[in-house]
Each structure stands twice: as C-alpha cells, then as structure tokens.
Amino acid sequence: MAAVNLGRKPNPATDAPLEPGALVSAATPAAQSGPEHVEEPVAYDAILLASFGGPEGQDDVIPFLRNVTRGRGIPEERLEEVAHHYRAFGGVSPINDQNRELKAALEARLAERGIDLPVLWGNRNWDPYLNDALSEARDAGYTKLIALATSAYSSYSSCRQYREDFADALEDTGLIGSIQIDKVRQYFDHPGFVTPFIEGLRGALEELRAAVPDIDLETQAEVLFATHSIPSTDAAKSGPGERGFDGNGAYAAQHLAVAEVVMHEATGGTTVPWQLVYQSRSGPPSMPWLEPDVNDAIKGLAERGVRAVIVVPLGFVSDHMEVLWDLDREAKETAEEHGLHFQRIPTPGVHTEYVDGLIDLVLERVNGTPTAERPAMTDLGPWYDVCRPGCCENVRLGFKPAIAGLKP
C-alpha cells in the first residue's frame, strides 16, 4: 500500500485503472459497464459527503487558497486579494460548519427513516480531506461508497473536478481496487433541491409587497437567479456534447430550466421579470467568463427604473463565502448605492426537503430505482448516474484521471 499522508490535499492521480472488463473506474459492479442510469440495486456500506472545504482560522487562509489554485500558477499577490474576503470573517469560512450541520442532519434523518448507512465527510481543499475520509472507510471495513457532492449542476468545477479528486484520494491512499465509489446524479432539478428556492422566493415576494406596498411587481421588481460564473470554455464543454446545448452548455441550460420552474411555482401567475446572472469570477480579464455579473445587472435595473431586486442564490446549496460576501455584501451594497430595495432568499442548507432529497438520491442507487420513477422538475432530467464520455472537460488542463464516469 502507498504511504498515506493524512491532513493534507492528496497529490494528483497518475491513473484511474479499470477493473478487468469494466468501462468505469473504481465503480461498483452495477455501474462498471457505464449505463446512463443504474437500475440494479447496490448494497452500499456508507455515504461519502464530499464538499469544497474552507479555512477555519487566519493561518489557514493562504494555504487553503494554494490548495484551491494548485497547478494554475496564481501569484501570491492575487491570493492575498481573495484572502481579504475570508479575513473579514476572522479567517473562517462558514462552509465547514455548514457541512457539519448537513452531516448531522443526514445522520438524524437516516436514523428516523430506518436507513443504516453511516455518513463520512471529506473535503477537496481543506481538512478533513477526501483521503482522510477514505482512510476512515478502510479502517471501518467499508468498501462500497455512494458519494454526495455539495454541488447540484454540471460543469468541470461542480462535477468532474470532484470525480478527479476522488481518483486522487484513491491513489493517494493506495485504495484503488479496494474501495469503490459511485456518485449520485447531478440533482439540479430534484424536488429536494428546488423546493427550498420555491418557498424562499414565494416568501420574499410576500415580504416585498409588505415592505414596498405601492410597488408594481411586473414593472418595478426583478428576480436575479445568481450562480457562480465559470470560464466560457468550461461552460461550452459542460454536459454531454450529444445533448446539443448551446454555447453555454448544460451548466447554463440547467440553471435556466430550474429558474423557470421556480418562477412558475413561486409567483402564482404573476408576471415578475427575471434573469440569470453570474458572480464570483476569478479569472484574468483576457479570459471570457459567463455574464452578466450580478452587480452589472443590478446597475442596469436601476437605469431602467426598477425599484426592488430579489436575489435567488440558485447555484449554491449553503450560505458559504460566495453567498455571504459576493451577494450579502457586494451585491447588496450595489443595490443600495443605486436606490434599490434588496432581498436575498436562503439557500437549501439543512432544509428538511433538501436533506430528504439527498437521501432519496442515495436510495435511487440502493434500490436501483427505474429511471421512469425518478423525480425531475425539468425536461432535462433525471440526469445521468454515470457521467458520459468527455463530459465537463477542462479545456485548459485536459482530461485527468477521474472516476464515476466513462473515459476520457
């Protein structure tokens, strides 16, 4: 077995070898042949809750950012520019505490539902790392894991990079061939993820009517569905090419489809204008990223005479740093500077529908639920259990070893 260095980000994997006759690396037998949807029951030993991770003190901030940007040649001065977001919160990202809450909520609900599956937790970029979680699984004798990533959409950073990091952790711990990891489907349109946004927007519209009684929602208010911007090249490669998405790929298409559902369900027939906006871009100005930026969109609303804006953080599962800083601070300040009433609805967090929805996604694979019986609130889903060949390529870095999908 390879030497295991716990408490640090795993080294990049050099390979993700296939079992004899398999088409999907490190997969359970039910998924090894690469079906779009696995309809064969699998007796998993544990759930692997996989997240981004975040610093938990001032001394952690720069090492954490180095982990996040490893291999990209980002200069230290640029890291310092980003670091002030974390330093403003004492160097502590809220994401780890949010994952602790989610893990506890999953464990409690699993017990209430009589489901005997322990929950392991590992991060991509900070302690506890994914190799720590896999070592915990090995020590407990768990060999079949079903992964829940805290990311609902299809793109390199929100899906394939998780699959690469699983491969990194397996190689780093010497557990390739000993532990199998499947991953639940991207759940952007699962009711458990979408319902909290519907409830949140419905409540925000009621609050807006009360706060600004004379407002005309159809001409003086707008809903901004906000998500993390990604490079345009990554967006174009998100999702399987054969699905025929436009130049912004599955990533934008999924968000737009979910936003339409949320608007339809939350507004009760009221025609409130809305648009999809992006935030948190971090690339150089020379690299195109998805637009419009949320702050630019807010400025444009003010110029059109809009009086109020409701921000729906549709791309996020919890109130982590990008929500607290980029929306609650920067976007809110932009709205106030331009005289707009500002509201931001909650993320799913540990909403009961979201927690139950994640468990239901696991049970789809435990029970081998037929595709026709799987819930999806848009015409795009239910999404794939096994990622398709070439899905969500990182054009700048190329294809790295990954699991839970067909090569490359």
What descriptive keywords fit this protein?
408 residues, alpha/beta, Rossmann fold, 4-stranded parallel sheet, 12 helices
Structure notes:
It is a single chain. It is built from twelve helices and eight strands. It has two domains: 1-54 and 93-186 and 350-408, Rossmann fold (3-Layer(aba) Sandwich); 191-344, Rossmann fold, CATH 3.40.50. The strands form two sheets. A four-stranded parallel beta sheet has the order 2-1-3-4, sandwiched between helices. Strands 6-5-7-8 form a four-stranded parallel beta sheet, with helices on both faces. Helix content is 39%, strand content 11%. Helix 1 (61-68) packs across helix 2 (76-87). With 408 residues, it is an alpha/beta fold. The radius of gyration is 21 Å and the shape is globular. Strand 3 (144-149), helix 5 (156-173) and strand 4 (180-183) form a beta-alpha-beta unit. The mean pLDDT is 95. The longest helix is centred in the middle third of the chain and has 21 residues, at 191-211. The protein starts with 45 loop residues before the first strand and ends in a 41-residue tail after the last helix.
